[in-house]
Amino acid sequence: MAEKRSSLTEGPIAKGLFRFALPLLGSSLIQQLYNTVDLIFVGNFLGKSASAAIGSTSLVVSCIIGFFNGLGMGVGVLTAQFYGAKKNKKIKGTVHTAAGLTLLLSLIITVAGWVLCPYILKLLKIPADIQVPASTYLRIYMLSLLSIVSYNMSAGVLRALGNSRTPMLCQLLGGIVNVAADALFICVFQLGVAGAGLATVFSQSLAAVLTIRCICRLPQDYRLELRRMTIEPGMAKAIFRIGIPEAVRSMMITFANLMVQTQINILGVNSMAAYASYVKAEGFLYLPQWAMGQANTTFVGQNLGAGNVERAEKGARTAIFMVIGITVTISAFILIFPEQVFRLFSSDPEIITLSAKLGCAAYGLYFLYGIVEVIAGAIRGAGHSTPPMVILLINMCGVRLIVLRILLCYFDSIEKIILVFPITWICSCLSMVLYYRFGKWKTSALLDGKNT
């Protein structure tokens, strides 16, 4: 697989951001696609008990993956800045420290998860009749943790070097294997939920091997040499300093959304089904925003590393205008054709109508969250991941739960409760813009020699 790298420190800004973000969006869509295929196989061939068993472990899985994705963000930011600054020795130290941390931490959490699995399921109050399949799936999933973390870390390095295409292609091949493995293990060998877990192990392992191979084939100055894996204390500290706040943010927002979901569940089956459709449609809005935010992180990281502060600022502004344009276009389509869109997720006329009302109440302001993603990406690209974490925790967790409580005091319909989302997008956007305007995000603490 050809390994392509590109510097984002030169050339047209909008074109560079778009070309870099497009494969990131592709990766997200591929991930969504084979997650959907997993659900199709489990739901259609194993039944609702198996679906419930796998679904009941999703919060645990999300928290673990969120933690390692945060560390991957730290690795990516360091690599991008060192690449922009042409500090090849530092890139090599980052890559080898990331490899060492991947091996050590994934093995520790795999063993801990395997041993503590029964206690975790009891803590989550998993019904007794699905505890066995839930435990089976979670323990097998833990076996794929090393591969999942290896892929995310390797993909983070490649993207930081300006190559977002190769991780997408690796994930695509892994997704194809995932579909084939689901069919083989579930339909042919009839392994039940264990088959779904094994399909994940095989697909993620392939994606990990392919991306690691690419890192081992980088230029000699900073390629990965497996026998030289290490953990440099200064480099590990820098990775944790960026990664831990991002991991905490991811896990806490998941928790806050779970609280909203819990209150919606009280409103009945129709509200639950309409909200599920709303969330699925929201994915079409969020994934481009996520891709632009990630692209902006690499863009800003490389340019600040190169000492080009003005270009970093121009890139952030360009990314903001691009994400607004993309989000408004998709939102307008959904708002103009709500029934046609939500019919994709449900055939029940009542659910379609209610889902459309939710979309009309919220999607018009969804571009504000796009601004949040892009600005947070710029700030993280500068190496400051704590301010975005604090801003988002205050607004997406604290303010969201307070507003939810207030809305519940006056309304008992999901059409009103859904307003909790646009209200917190407004608060988050204002807070992030103020920090972006007056904060010292452009000063990088990564390249001054204090931490690395």
TrEMBL record:
It is a multi-pass membrane protein. It holds the Pfam family MatE. InterPro entries: MATE_fam, MATE_MdtK, MdtK-like. One of its GO terms (biological process) is monoatomic ion transport. It is found in: Cell membrane. The keyword Hydrolase does not apply. GO terms for molecular function: antiporter activity; xenobiotic transmembrane transporter activity. The chain crosses the membrane at residues 16-34, 54-78, 98-121, 141-161, 168-191, 318-336, 356-378, 390-411, 417-436. Its main location: membrane. The keyword Cytoplasm does not apply. PANTHER family: FMN_FAD EXPORTER YEEO-RELATED (PTHR43298:SF2), MULTIDRUG RESISTANCE PROTEIN NORM-RELATED (PTHR43298). Multidrug efflux pump. Belongs to the multi antimicrobial extrusion (MATE) (TC 2.A.66.1) family. This is Probable multidrug resistance protein NorM.
